[in-house]
Design brief:
A hairpin with a 4-residue loop joins strand 9 (109-116) and strand 10. This protein has one helix at residues 80-87; strands at residues 12-16, 29-30, 40-43, 47-51, 61-65, 69-75, 90-92, 99-101, 109-116, 121-135, 145-152, 164-167. It is built from one helix and twelve strands; from the N terminus they run ββββββαββββββ. By secondary structure, it is mostly beta strands. Strands 1, 2, 3, 6, 9, 10, 11 and 12 form an eight-stranded antiparallel β-sheet that branches. Strands 4-5 form a two-stranded antiparallel sheet. A two-stranded antiparallel sheet has the order 7-8. The chain starts with 11 loop residues before the first strand and ends with a strand.
Length: 171
């Protein structure tokens, strides 16, 4: 039996501002190279709350809440523009004068994210809370990196799903 759909590889990760109506951003920026095997979209286990009473031993009801969903990846080639997009602050991208200035306080960033694999399912997240942190050494054996965790959030636009998929076009 042939596999129906395999999602494999990574072509690009794009990030941009959420539209003013709360829907998926349409002006997304490809942020750079992703460290090998670092891009993971995962859900935590659902949380169960058992409703227990004195009269019987077993729960009379169980309330289930879906687990938190996160997209985690490591940016392998952070430049000034990517740092400002992922960590706040200010980037100067003029050739010869490139610089990044960090913000005074830790920013709370919410952005739209699109992940395009080599084949299979494209992941679109209209609203994600992004936390990025430095992770690198100034050494000969490894490059300087930025770890990113994007937590899927409910979009502010009514009726919009927290994430959706489409298929990579086949050629």
């Amino acid at each position: 039996m042939a596999a129906k759909l395999i999602t494999l590889g990574l072509t690009k990760i794009e990030i941009g501002d959420i539209l003013t109506d709360g829907s998926m951003g349409t002006s997304l920026t490809q942020i750079g190279y992703t460290d090998r095997d670092s891009c993971v979209f995962a859900s935590e286990d659902p949380q169960e709350t058992e409703i227990e009473v004195e009269e019987v031993d077993d729960a009379i009801d169980i309330i289930i809440r879906g687990g938190k969903k996160t997209l985690k990846f490591t940016l392998a080639d952070p430049d000034e523009a990517a740092l400002a997009l992922l960590m706040g602050g200010t980037a100067v991208t003029t050739t010869g004068s490139e610089s990044y200035t960090a913000p005074d306080t830790f920013p709370v960033l919410e952005k739209s994210i699109k992940v395009t694999p080599s084949k299979g399912l494209i992941l679109s997240i209209p609203r994600a809370r992004i936390v990025a942190k430095w992770n690198g050494a100034f050494s000969k054996s490894t490059n300087f990196k930025v770890d990113v965790v994007a937590t899927v959030m409910t979009p502010t636009k009514s009726g919009l799903a927290p994430f959706s998929t489409t298929r990579v076009p086949t050629t």
